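Submission checklist for the structure archive. All mandatory fields must be present; incomplete records are returned to the submitter.

[x] Identifier: Glyoxalase-like domain-containing protein
[x] Organism: Streptomyces aidingensis
[x] Residue count: 210
[x] Sequence attached
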Amino acid sequence: MTMTSIESVTLEVADPAAARRFCTAAFGLDTQIRLRASEAPSTGFRGFTLTLSVAQPATVDSFMASALEAGAAVLKPAAKSLWGYGGVVRAPDGTIWQLASTSKKNTGPATREFDSIVLLLGVSDVAASKRFYTGRGLSVAKSFARVYAEFAPGTGPLTLALYRRRALAKLAGVAPEGSGSHRIVIGGDAGTFTDPDGFAWEATAPASAR
């Protein structure tokens, strides 16, 4: 039996060509993030962040610099914290990107490589959302009480995780209020549905089957 997992993330943006140029220039992303034209109304915090998880602080700084050069705005400057080192930027299309390393010390020169892309959903009830997703076949890899849950990754670089909405907004450096479209669609083999917090999923074939 194939394990259910997240296979793609599609950002809904006003100008897909401009968003693609940003993703490529800022982070070297190409096929990892999909883009779709949309004018769906959305105000305030969209309820999610995307995180590039990297090996060391120097690489965080490199991605921060290229993101700013490509037109991003700083929400949180890169700095050390209890869990490591990281910063937060908002792309011109409105997507919030976290750049993070669990290491606080450099072990070599900066690279342009990342270990994973984490889609962090801000939800009203982590325990309830975790039950919802496990009921659709996703396997929990990490879980911390009612605060955080992370699911086993699929065949690609994408990992899905859950965090409390207000805590995620604080982590991102924005107000938690928001309304309208999340401006994101998650693709996977769990089928087409909408989760308790309004995040839409669509059925896609696993990468290994394409």
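[x] Structure attached
Curator remark: The first strand starts at residue 6 and ends at 13. Residues 206-210 have pLDDT under 50 and may be disordered.
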